[in-house]
Amino acid sequence: MPSDASARKINWMVVIMGVLLVVFGAAAIAAPWVFLEFLTIWAGAGFVVSGIVGLASYVSANKALPGSGWNLVMGILDVVLGVLFIAHPFWFADVIPWMLGVSFIVFGILEVVGMVPLGKSAPALRAIVVISGILSIVTGVLFIMNPASLSIWVAMFAIIQGVSMIVMGFSARIS
Fold first, then answer.
1. CA pair distance 166, 23, nearest whole angstrom
2. Every domain of the chain and the residues it spans
3. How far apart are the C-alpha atoms of 39 and 46, rounded to whole Å?
């Protein structure tokens, strides 16, 4: 029977992906505005694709379906917004954290308010849900007040996941 040490094998693919995540995280910490510009360009590309799909949907509906005009309007707006994001990522780099910040704030408020009716049926969950909601609100406010903080949070997540993957890659077992 092989020893525990001989049953281990390094999974280099997992290790390499972990190293890449750590490097990505370090780069996002070193240059948060560059990361936000990169994220803005990707969001712009997403808007352009969404707009093209909306326009194609409008054309394929033969303009006959009720409400298909909204596909045209939304498709045009998505394409215009996407082109603006791609053409001027520095100008729009604050928009992405602001949108996420507002989303986090609304989610946190809904989480805390939604816990009120559940408080009597699930008192043990009340504290954790309220804390989670408050942390969501604080994070949202942080994103709005300091857009570069989004880069730091994403970077920390990437580094933590990268280190975890590196450890898992070196701890792989032969099956």
1. 12
2. 1-92+161-175, 95-146
3. 11
